[in-house]
Amino acid sequence: MHGLIYYIDGATDTVDLERVTAKATLIDLSARVQVTQTYHNDSPTTLSCSYMFPVPARSAVCGFAMVKQDGTRVVGVVQEKEEARVTYDDAVQEGKLASLTEQASPDSFVCSVGNVLPKETVKIELAYVTELTEGDTSDSIRFHIPAIVGQRYGQQPLFGGAHIPSSSKTAFEFSASIEAASAITKVASPSHPVSLELGPDPSLPHAKDLPIANYARVSFSTSTTLEKDIVLTVHASGLDQPRCVAELHPTDKSAAVSLTLVPRFKLPEVEGQEYIFLVDRSGSMGAWSEGEGRIGMARKALVVLLRSLPSTGTSFNIASFGNNVESLWPSSQPYNQSTLDTATKHVDALGANLGGTETRKALDYVFQSRTKSKPTSVFVLTDGDAWDLDGVISSVKSAVASGTPDKPVRCFVLGIGNDASTAMCESIARHGGGIAQYVVDGDSFTGKTARLLKAARTPPIVNARLDFGLKEEEEHAEEDFELVEGAAPAYETSQDKEKAPTNLFDSSVDPLADTDSSASKPPPAPPVKPPPPPRIQQAPRDLSPLYPGSRLHAYAILKSAKDLPETVFLRGELASGQKLELAVPVVRSQLATVESSNFPPPIHTIAARKLIQDLEDGKHDLGVKDDLDLTKRTVEAAAVRLGKTYSLASSQTSFVAVDESEKDKPRKATQYQVIYDSPPHGGAVAFGGAAPAGPHMRRSRMATPMSTFAAIPPPPPAPASAVPVVFAPAPAQAQPRFGRMMKAVKSASPFGSSAPPPTDAMQAMSLTHAAPSAAGIDGGAPPLPAGGLFNQYAHSPEQPEPAATPTDPLDAIARHQSFDGSFNPAVLALCAPSASVDELVQKLPPSLQEKEGKEKLVATAVVLAYWKREMRDREEEWEAMAEKALAYLRSEAGDVAAEIVALFA
């Protein structure tokens, strides 16, 4: 996890993280998680600290509390973000123990804790709810707890956020209670060895009467720090079935519904499509404790994806990126055996050697170079370690808007690695009309790539929507509104009201004072009162694309539970006009646990978080014509209302907790510094020496002056033999790998104890070594060629690295498949090593034994039989390749293709 960080005497240090406890409750297709972190200030100084912690991007942070050493529990409340900062600043300045939790990105939060006394222990409790994604199969779900926030490349959006791993002595405990609506058939963890016990928790009400098969308990503990995400997969019958669960609010009159299903339908596939594979080759893609790293997983995924492409009408290309962008060809090429062989050699040589993570520039290049005359599907394989989320979203939205219903542009994402940014991956897929899948070390990945490809080959369903059975006039009856500015302006505007006469000699007025004073400035914009919520609030507003095998989640909050229907209809159309429909009965939520009373209602909470996400994405009806500023403030006010109503931390709301029990004995501060609005994106986010600063200080206070720091000169040019930079961006604001540089920072800090951190973490570190090499960590630029930078895209040179020998049998078999679906006879050494080719040919019908190409025909049939016999549990992974192989057999043998496969079963 992460340690509380503080800054003192020119160095960054951490408060000891003694223990982390995570408790999860998985209920059907959602989860509630409580994380407790125990910190101990072992220093002789009162400290104010901050730390960053991760949550999945689909989550809603809905609970926060601070527990003092004497057991006093200080529960956080939700306030508008600026109000919360002021509350925190005032409390810490007054010597109170206080804490503030703010959103840094959709999948990471920053918590500041002010005035921790010497030798004091403080517990931070965080609670969130999250929806569960599909697992490797349609009847499974995936749950994960992120262990770290990846060191992301570029400028962090809100405020500085360096974070380092906690002490290796930190104890970690995890437990999960699983409650399914049907019998659980399997629980597994690809990430950690876990203990499993079937049956309900004995503390549950009427535990003896509950069906044992529907419950399970999982636990895991270690005396050392958790270094990678905990991932659980749960298999249960019927998890892919459509369901719509209704939840009545315990104190309000509202109802919330959650609709989910794994679609099963078959539509005519998109023909004549372009497939572009965009591979992250930044330094972080080489990171993993064992094996080939993330780039190795990307190579394996590409081997399967390339062989699963349609044989006819397909064009494709492979681009890769880091600081620069490289592509296999200047533009996409027709899919045939020659181009497949060339692409395979290129894939085998891909390495994580392109420096930082310039995702937006890579996407811009791919979208600009795509073929405009046909549909385009872009597959992004990345760990998502970059902060430029807004820029990436802008690039994807522009590209999607440039497509047409019959020639759409879509983006699909495979998130790779234990700390893949769910915010980045989900955003690309959400705005790109695609889906995102994730793979961690030890996880099966080929099934997920097959699911991505299956989605890309399915035509997009437009205008997908939920129908709650209300008549249109009833549904919109309460939506008409008049936008009202909430508070009166600071000055009177009425011409009818008599004004008091102005004193011609006011002794409090200095006529020579600076005319640019606060008195002469226009009053601040008045607060906005957003319109009342509509009768039905659907989230997301635009339903995610429906793809076979990929789970759909949709939510709605109904203002009145009286409007709750018996059936909800899911409807949509194809671009051709064909209509689609599914009726889903509504059932009342019956699942409950003993912790329910301590949590907000989960369906309401997730629905509210999705509504806020729509507001952030600009998907709303709150626009005010010709007034962008009023629109912006109205949207923010609506997000604040949702955050306060449902106790949510978001981009517009924060949790703040202030201990009021020590009014007569404030905690004395011995040092004070200010964190400015644009602090370092790579340095510490918190200050020590009793510094009561939060992430942003909004009002003037006493502070030591900012020091001036000179920039580190650029590195000298590399020798002419260095790998050329194909596309060279402007010098990036690099965020260093903090763990590797911590020792250097402490021993050779160039700034004194009285100065706040510099504006760039790289400038702050007087490191004697040269800039990272091309194979280095994210943020390190590759060596520059002697001839300077080439500000253009170009064809990538052939890579000299040798291909790795595949260890996965499916990967090894896939490499023998040709573009038309047939298999090279050499594959028989893997699938039928004890039989000769001649012996196998003799099993064919007499009419085929002398056919030209009979060896390929036999090899193809043997592989299909082998997959069905030996790899039935991985069918989703080889399904697309098998379809091509069977199509080849039909073209060569006619209607008896299936019988030929049966000969080798």
Total number of helices: 18
Uncertain residue segments: 157-167, 475-499, 514-519, 591-596, 669-803
Fill in the CATH topology of the domain at 274-458. Rossmann fold
CATH class of the domain at 274-458: Alpha Beta
**Gap from first CA to last CA:** 50 Å
Rg computed from alpha carbons, rounded to a whole number of angstroms: 30 Å
- Name the overall outline: globular
- Summed over residues and divided by their number, the pLDDT gives a mean of 75
Largest sheet: 9 strands, mixed
CATH architecture of the domain at 274-458: 3-Layer(aba) Sandwich
Helix share bin:
10-25%
Q: Give the beta-strand count.
A: 34
CATH homology-level superfamily of the domain at 274-458: von Willebrand factor, type A domain
Protein name: von Willebrand factor type A domain-domain containing protein
Biased composition (Pro residues): 521-535
Domain VWFA: 274-456
Organism: Rhodotorula toruloides
Explain what you see.
It is a single chain. With 905 residues, the chain is of the alpha+beta class. Among the domains are: 185 residues, Rossmann fold (3-Layer(aba) Sandwich), CATH 3.40.50; 124 residues, no CATH class; 95 residues, no CATH class. The protein is 22% helix and 25% strand. The chain has 18 helices and 34 strands. Strands 1, 2, 3, 5, 6, 10, 13, 15 and 16 form a nine-stranded mixed sheet that branches. Strand 5 and strand 6 form a beta hairpin. The longest helix is centred in the C-terminal third of the chain and has 19 residues. The chain is globular, with a radius of gyration of 30 Å.
